[in-house]
Amino acid sequence: MSLLEVTDLRAGYGETRVLDGVSLAVDAGEVVTLVGRNGVGKTTTLRAIVGAITPWAGTVRYDGEDVTGLSPEATVARGIGFVPEERRVFPGLTVTENLSLATHGGSDAGRGRSVESVLDTFEPLDERRDATGQHLSGGEQQMLAIARALVADADLLLLDEPTEGLAPLVVEAVADLVRNANETDGITVLLVEQNVATALELADHAYVLDQGRVVYEGTAADLEAATDVVDRHLGVSID
Q1: Is there a domain that residue 178 lies in?
Q2: I want to staple 61 with a disulfide (CB 3.0 to 4.6 A). Which of 5, 14, 20, 225 is the partner?
Q3: Is the pTM of this model over 0.85?
Q4: Which CATH number does the domain housing residue 135 bear?
């Protein structure tokens, strides 16, 4: 049984259907990426999984439990961490205060990821622990958003465009943090990423989304080699 199982998920906004039967699975310990052009439903998939929107149909199972339609607070309490594209760092709070706040209302699994232990891993944040969110760079804000999810004891990280708008060197730093969270801390990751090369470098498994449906599933290496799929559904070149 997979840690996360999404089956025939249908969802949208108002009367506009965005997801038209999305199914995917994420095994414990994996990094799985969901890629596709802008507007095909990648973010909506993450939002439906975490409970930020209520699916119209379909099921979301996490660690064997049906969590379809639960609130974000309830899914976080079960160990699902969501890092949205806009990051949502508290601008007037310091790095330490942002992380300390995340200890309240997170998972009760007791894995012991303290603020200090996470800062030891995120060295750039450790050096900026007294800086407020509004004075952090985009890359530092992204690191803080990921660190906050770890402090909240996430076992599954849903990452929405973590490298969006970042300089190439910062992209590498954020990718290294995601890789470290997976390989060292054992965090399972479902990654939505517009930078396809970075996504496939990090991922074990990949799904391609187009018009609200999964049109391709395979290993990251298989997708990288499937140039016809990449050309047709992603419209990018992978170097």
Answers
A1: yes
A2: 5
A3: yes
A4: 3.40.50.300
